[in-house]
Design brief:
The chain has 157 residues and is α+β, with helices and mostly antiparallel strands. The chain has a single domain, classed as SMI1/KNR4-like. It contains 4 helices and 8 strands; from the N terminus they run E-H-H-E-E-E-H-E-E-E-E-H. A 6-stranded antiparallel sheet has the order 3-4-5-6-7-8. It has a two-stranded antiparallel sheet with strand order 1-2. A hairpin with a 4-residue loop joins strand 5 and strand 6.
Amino acid sequence: MKINENTIVYPPPTDSEIREVERSLRINLPNEYISFIKRYNGAEAITNQFQASQHEYLLERFLCILEDSEDDEENGWYDIEVVISQIGDRLTDNEDLVGMDIVPIAALFAGDYVCLDCRNEAEPSVVIWNHEESDEFSPVLIKISNNISEFFGMLKE
C-alpha cells in the first residue's frame, strides 16, 4: 500500500492517546493497526481502490486519533471518536453496549466506512459499514477480510 505522506495528520497519536481510545471504546486495537496509525495517522492512500464482495470500493482516507478534535477544523471530522459520536447508534445492534464493537478506521467514497469488527473474534475482522442500509441498532456490514493485515494487502497495486 502506498500512502500520500503529505496528508498525514500531525502530531501522531501517543501510546497514551491510543490507550485512552481503547479504554473509551472498551476494545483492544490490533498491534498492526496501532503501528499503522502511529505512522500514518489520518492519511490518504495512493493505492486507494480495492475489490470485495464483487464491488469496487474507493478509500477516501484513513481516520485519525487527535489529541483535541475541536482544535483541528480541517481533520476533526476524521477523528475516530468524532465519527463514532455521529454514527454510533448505527454501528451496533446492542443498545445496551457500553463501548463499541464496530470501530470505523477509514472513510470510503460516498459515506460508508471500513471498520474493525471486534464482536466475536480474538482478532478483529474488517468490514464495510453500509450507511444507506444501516439504521439505528441495525448495522449492515459486509465482511471484506479476516484481519487488518489482509485488508492492507488489498490496497496493493
